[in-house]
Specification:
heterotrimer; A: mainly alpha; 1% strand; B: 247 residues; Rossmann fold; 6-stranded mixed beta sheet; 4-stranded antiparallel beta sheet; 37% helix; 24% strand; globular
Chain lengths: 290, 247, 291
C-alpha cells in the first residue's frame, strides 16, 4: 500500500522535474521570467489527450504534445520579445490565463469543465504501461533524457549565449547576435519539455480538466526552480524530489485531503518567500535574479 | 570609412543631435569631445542602431546603415565599447571573450556537435590567450567576470570589443575611472591597433588623453559640431574654449 | 439589451476601479506589482463573511472590522515580506514573485479554513430591481456605484490636498529627491499599503455583497484590477479608474460578439495588447518600462 503510494509520488517527482528543468532553461539560463509555463503544460496535456482519444498511438501523441507546445512557445516569444522584468512576467501570466479560458470555454473541443476522461495508458511496441511501476520507469527514462538534453544545451556555446542574454542582452546584440532568435529558441525548447510533461501527466492520471492547469499548479514549479537555484540543473532535480515529498508526512499523520491539498500550496508559497528573503540564490544556484 | 550626414535626433522637445555631419578617415584615431550633454553618446547610439535618427544618414564604407538593426550593424563591422560596464557577469572571462569571436554559437545545431573542430578551437584559444597577455590578465581567464575589479572589467570589455570582428572600433570613454597606470596601457594598446591599420572613434572626457592619442578631434556642443581638426588646432580654437569655459 | 449592458459595465467598472486604485496607489509609490493585493480582497471578504454571516455581528461593525483587517493585512505583508526584500536590495521581479507566493498562500489558507464551496453573505434580500431605461439595477448595485464614486473622489482629494498624499506623490515622482527633503520612503510605502489595502477592504465588502465568495476570487479580481491599471497607465490613480471603466465596458459589450465564458479572456487579451503596444497606458508617462 505504502509502496504503491510511493511509486505514485515518484512519478509526480519525475513530471515536476521535467517541468522545472524546462522552466530553468528559460528562467535560470536565459533570464526570461515566464509565468506562463503552466500554459505549455496545459497545451501538451490537451493535445496528447485529444489525439489519444481519437485513436492515435502514444508516441505520436507524446511528440505532438511537445511540438504543439513548442509552437506556442515560439508564438509567445514574438509579442514578448521587447518586454523585461515585471512586464514580461505579467504578459506571460496573461498568456496562461488566455489558454486557461480557452480550455474552459471551447467546450466543443475540450468539453470545458467536464474534462476529458478515459485517456488511454501509454503503449509502445505493443507493451501497455498499465501498472504504476512500469509507468514510473517510463517517466524516469523520459525525465532523464530531458535532463541530459537540457544540460547539453546549457553547457554548449549556444547555452552560453543564452546566459549572456540573461546577464546583458544589449551587449549580446552589439556583438552581432540575434537575441530574438535565441530567446525564441529558449522559450520554444522550454515549452517542448513542458508539453511532454503534460502528455505524461494526461496519460498517467487518464483524466484532465482545466483545473489542473491553474496558478496553484505553477507555484510548486516556480518554488522548485528558485529553491533549487537559478541556472542549477542539479539543484532543480534535488528540489523537485524534496518539494514533492515534503508535504507527504501531513497525509500520514492523518489529516484529511481537504487540509493536505491547501497545506501543500501553503508550504510551497511559504518556502518560496523564505528563500527569496534569506537565501536568494537558492541552494545550488550561483545567480541572483535581478 | 564612416560618414555621417545631417543627423538629427529629438528627445521630446530637446534636440540631442542637431544636424551633425562628419567623416572618419581610415586608419586614424578620432576623438569625439564636448561638454556633458553635448550628444556624444547619443551619436554612438545612433551609429550602433540602438536609437533611430529622426533624419539623416549614416554610411559605413559607402554602405547606408541608417536603418539597420543593432545585430546587422555589428556584423557589418562596427564593434563598440559602452560607457557603463556591460560584461556577462556570471560567465568567466574566457567565455566572455569567446562570445565575441564569432556567431556560430547562435546556431542551434551546434548544441549537438559534441566537439568543435580542434583547429578552430586552437585558433580561438590562441586569440584569447594573446589578447589576455596584451592586457596582462592571463591569470584571470577562468575567473567570473563579476569578481574582477573595475579596472580589470574595463580591460576585459575593451578586449571583447577588440576581439569582436570589425573594421571600425567605437569606444565610449575607455579610460574613465581607470587608474593612471592602466590609462597608459590602454593608450599603448590603442596606438598599437592603429599601427596595425585599425580605425578608431572614441569619446573622451580626459582632454589630455584625447589630444595625445588622436589624429583628429571633433568637438560637439548642444548636438552640433562646432570644430573639427588636428589636436593642436583644436587646443587653440577660441570657439572650443568658450564651449568648455564659457558657461 | 444595450442599456442593460451599460448598467452592467458601470457596476463592473466601479468594482474594478476600487481594486485598481488601491493597487495603483501602492505601485505608484513602491514601484512593484503587489500581486497579493488580490489576497487582501479575498481574505477580507471571507473575514467579513465570518463576522457577519457566521458570528452574526452587526453589519456596520463587521464592515468596519473588515476594512481595518484589510488595512492591517496589507501593512503586515509589507512589513514582514516586502520590507525585508527591499532591505537586501531585491529587484522588483523578486518582489513580484514574493507577492505571487503570498497570493497563493492566502488563497490556500482560505481554502483550508472555509472550504472550496461558494459562500453567500446574503445581507440584502434579492430586492426587485428598479427599471431604468429598460435596464434593471438593484438598490445594492446603486450603492456600489455610489460608494465607489465617493471613495474615488475622496482618494483623489486625499492625494491632492493632504500632507501624506503630497508626500506620496513626491515619493512616486522621485524617491531620492523626496528623501533629500526629509520624507522617509519606507514610511510612505507603509502608508500606501495601509490606504491601498483599506480601499481593497471596501471593495471586498461590496464584491462579497454583490457576488458570491470563492477562494480564488482574489486572483481574478487582481488580474482585472491590474489590467485596468495598465490600460489607464500604471502608477496613475486617475488612470487606473479610467482603465477600470474602459475594461468594464469592453468586457460587457464584448459578450455581444463572444460566448459569455470568454468574458475573463477579454481582459487578458486587452492586457496583452496594452503591454505590447502601449505598456505605459493611456495616461501613463513613457519611462523606462523596458528596464
Amino acid at each position: 500500500m505504502i509502496s504503491a503510494y510511493f511509486i505514485h509520488l515518484l512519478i509526480l517527482v519525475g513530471i515536476y522535474a521535467i517541468l522545472a528543468v524546462a522552466l530553468q532553461l528559460a528562467m535560470g539560463f536565459t533570464g526570461l521570467l515566464n509565468l506562463g509555463h503552466i500554459a505549455f503544460y496545459c497545451v501538451g496535456a490537451y493535445i496528447s489527450a485529444l489525439l489519444a482519444l481519437a485513436g492515435w498511438p502514444f508516441w505520436f501523441c507524446f511528440l505532438s504534445a511537445g511540438i504543439g507546445a513548442m509552437l506556442f512557445g515560439f508564438l509567445l516569444a514574438i509579442p514578448t520579445n521587447k518586454l523585461k522584468g515585471d512586464y514580461l512576467a505579467l504578459a506571460t501570466l496573461g498568456f496562461s490565463f488566455v489558454i486557461y479560458a480557452v480550455a474552459l470555454n471551447w467546450t466543443g473541443l475540450t468539453r470545458g469543465p467536464l474534462g476529458l476522461p478515459g485517456i488511454p495508458k501509454p503503449s509502445l511496441f505493443g507493451f501497455v504501461f498499465s501498472n504504476n511501476l512500469s509507468f514510473l520507469i517510463l517517466t524516469f527514462i523520459i525525465a532523464l533524457t530531458s535532463y541530459f538534453i537540457i544540460k547539453q544545451i546549457a553547457s554548449s556555446p549556444f547555452g552560453k549565449v543564452l546566459e549572456a542574454i540573461r546577464d546583458n542582452e544589449l551587449a549580446v546584440r552589439v556583438l552581432g547576435k540575434n537575441t530574438f532568435k535565441m530567446k525564441s529558441y529558449a522559450l520554444g525548447i522550454s515549452a517542448f519539455f513542458a508539453g511532454i510533461a503534460g502528455s505524461l501527466y494526461a496519460h498517467y492520471i487518464t483524466f484532465i480538466d482545466p483545473s489542473s492547469f491553474t496558478l496553484l499548479q505553477l507555484i510548486p514549479v516556480i518554488a522548485i526552480v528558485i529553491i533549487g537555484g537559478l541556472a542549477s540543473l542539479r539543484g532543480t532535480v534535488i528540489a523537485a524530489v524534496v518539494l514533492v515529498l515534503l508535504p507527504e508526512p501531513l497525509r500520514f499523520i492523518g489529516f484529511p485531503s481537504s487540509i493536505v491539498g491547501p497545506a501543500r500550496q501553503m508550504i510551497y508559497a511559504l518556502l518560496l518567500i523564505l528563500i527569496l528573503i534569506y537565501k536568494p540564490k537558492g541552494f545550488y544556484g550561483k545567480i541572483e535574479l535581478e | 570609412m564612416l560618414k555621417i550626414e545631417d543627423l538629427n535626433k529629438f528627445f521630446g522637445g530637446i534636440k540631442a543631435v542637431d544636424g551633425c555631419s562628419f567623416e572618419i578617415k581610415e586608419k586614424t584615431i578620432t576623438a569625439l569631445i564636448g561638454p556633458n550633454g553635448s550628444g556624444k553618446t547619443t551619436i554612438f547610439n545612433l551609429i550602433s542602431g540602438i536609437l533611430r535618427p529622426d533624419s539623416g544618414k549614416i554610411m559605413l564604407g559607402g554602405k547606408d546603415i541608417t536603418d539597420k538593426s543593432i545585430e546587422d550593424i555589428s556584423n557589418l563591422g562596427i564593434s563598440r565599447l559602452f560607457q557603463q560596464t556591460r560584461l556577462f557577469n556570471n560567465l568567466t572571462v574566457r567565455e566572455n571573450l569567446l562570445l565575441a569571436l564569432d556567431n556560430e554559437d547562435t546556431k542551434f545545431w551546434s548544441v549537438f556537435v559534441l566537439r568543435a573542430s580542434a583547429d578552430k578551437k586552437n585558433k580561438f584559444e590562441k586569440k584569447i590567450q594573446e589578447m589576455l597577455e596584451l592586457v596582462g590578465l592571463e591569470e584571470f581567464a577562468d575567473k567570473l567576470a563579476r569578481d574582477l575589479s573595475y579596472g580589470q572589467k574595463r580591460l576585459i570589455e575593451l578586449s571583447r570589443a577588440i576581439l569582436n570582428p570589425h573594421n571600425f572600433l567605437m569606444l565610449d570613454e575607455p579610460v574613465s575611472g581607470v587608474a593612471p597606470r592602466l590609462r597608459e596601457k590602454i593608450k599603448e594598446i590603442l596606438i598599437g591597433l592603429k599601427e596595425k591599420g585599425e580605425t578608431i572613434l572614441l569619446i573622451e572626457h580626459d582632454m589630455n588623453f584625447a589630444f595625445k592619442i588622436s589624429d583628429d578631434v571633433i568637438v560637439l556642443e548642444k548636438g552640433r559640431v562646432i570644430a573639427e581638426g588636428k589636436p593642436d588646432e583644436i587646443k587653440n580654437n577660441p570657439r572650443v574654449l568658450e564651449a568648455y569655459l564659457g558657461n | 439589451m444595450f442599456s442593460q449592458l451599460f448598467v452592467n459595465s458601470l457596476i463592473a467598472g466601479a468594482i474594478y476601479g476600487l481594486v485598481a486604485s488601491g493597487f495603483s496607489l501602492i505601485y505608484s509609490t513602491c514601484k512593484f506589482v503587489h500581486f497579493a493585493h488580490g489576497a487582501t480582497i479575498a481574505f477580507s471578504a471571507y473575514f467579513f463573511y465570518f463576522l457577519f454571516s457566521f458570528l452574526g455581528l452587526n453589519f456596520w461593525v463587521s464592515a468596519i472590522l473588515a476594512v481595518v483587517f484589510a488595512s492591517w493585512l496589507g501593512w503586515l505583508m509589507n512589513k514582514v515580506v516586502y520590507k525585508k526584500l527591499r532591505k537586501r536590495k531585491a529587484g522588483n521581479v523578486i518582489l513580484l514573485i514574493a507577492g505571487f507566493a503570498l497570493l497563493i498562500f492566502f488563497e490556500a489558507l482560505i481554502l483550508m479554513l472555509f472550504g472550496a464551496d461558494v459562500k453567500t453573505i446574503g445581507y440584502i434580500k434579492i430586492a426587485k430591481g428598479l427599471e431604468f431605461l429598460g435596464a434593471i439595477i438593484t438598490p445594492l448595485q446603486i450603492v456600489i456605484v455610489a460608494v465607489s464614486f465617493v471613495l474615488l473622489v475622496a482618494l483623489f482629494l486625499f492625494m491632492k490636498k493632504t500632507k501624506t498624499g503630497k508626500a506620496m506623490r513626491a515619493v512616486a515622482g522621485n524617491k531620492d529627491a523626496a528623501e533629500i527633503v526629509g520624507i522617509s520612503a519606507e514610511k510612505i510605502y507603509s502608508r500606501s499599503f495601509i490606504i491601498g489595502s483599506a480601499i481593497a477592504g471596501i471593495a471586498a465588502i461590496l464584491v462579497g455583497l454583490e457576488q458570491n465568495l470563492q477562494p480564488m476570487m482574489g486572483t481574478n479580481l487582481m488580474i482585472k484590477g491590474f489590467t485596468a491599471a495598465i490600460i489607464g497607465g500604471i502608477g496613475s490613480v486617475p488612470g487606473a479608474i479610467l482603465g477600470s471603466f474602459l475594461l468594464g465596458f469592453a468586457e460587457n459589450y464584448g459578450i455581444w460578439f463572444l460566448p459569455s465564458g470568454y468574458k475573463d479572456a477579454i481582459a487578458f487579451v486587452i492586457l496583452f495588447i496594452f503591454l505590447l503596444f502601449r505598456p505605459y497606458g493611456i495616461l501613463g508617462i513613457r519611462k523606462n518600462f523596458q528596464k
